[in-house]
C-alpha cells in the first residue's frame, strides 16, 4: 500500500520559509523509505507559484488552497482547512516545518 506523506509549506506574503523546503525534503526521504508519495500543502492567496516550487523541491503533487480568507495566516482558518483536507485525503503522515506557524498549526490539527 502506498503511503501518503503530506507536508505543510509555511509562507509569508507568497514566499516560502526555508524550513518549508527542508520539510519537503524530509517528506521525500520518508516517502522513499515507505514507498509513498509527497503532497505539499500550500495555503494563501496568490500563491500558485509556490506549487511549482514545491514540485521542484520534491513534492509529487500540491494541494493548493488559494483563497482571500487565507491571505494572512490565521491559525483557526488554516487548521480548519487542513483538518477538512486531511479528513478527505487520509494521509498517513503530515509534516510541518520548524517555524512558529508550523508548530502552532501542528498543535491545532
Features:
109 residues; alpha/beta; Rossmann fold; 4-stranded parallel β-sheet; two-stranded antiparallel ribbon; 4 helices; 6 strands
Written description of the protein model:
The protein has 109 residues and is α/β, with parallel strands linked by helices. The chain has one domain (4-108): Rossmann fold, CATH 3.40.50.620. It is built from 4 helices and 6 strands, in the order E-E-E-H-E-H-E-H-E-H. It has helices spanning 18-34, 48-56, 75-89, 100-108, and strands at 4-9, 11-12, 15-16, 37-44, 61-66, 93-95. Strands 5-4-1-6 form a 4-stranded parallel beta sheet, sandwiched between helices. It has a two-stranded antiparallel sheet with strand order 2-3. Strand 4, helix 2 and strand 5 form a beta-alpha-beta unit. The protein is globular and about 35 Å long. The mean pLDDT is 96.
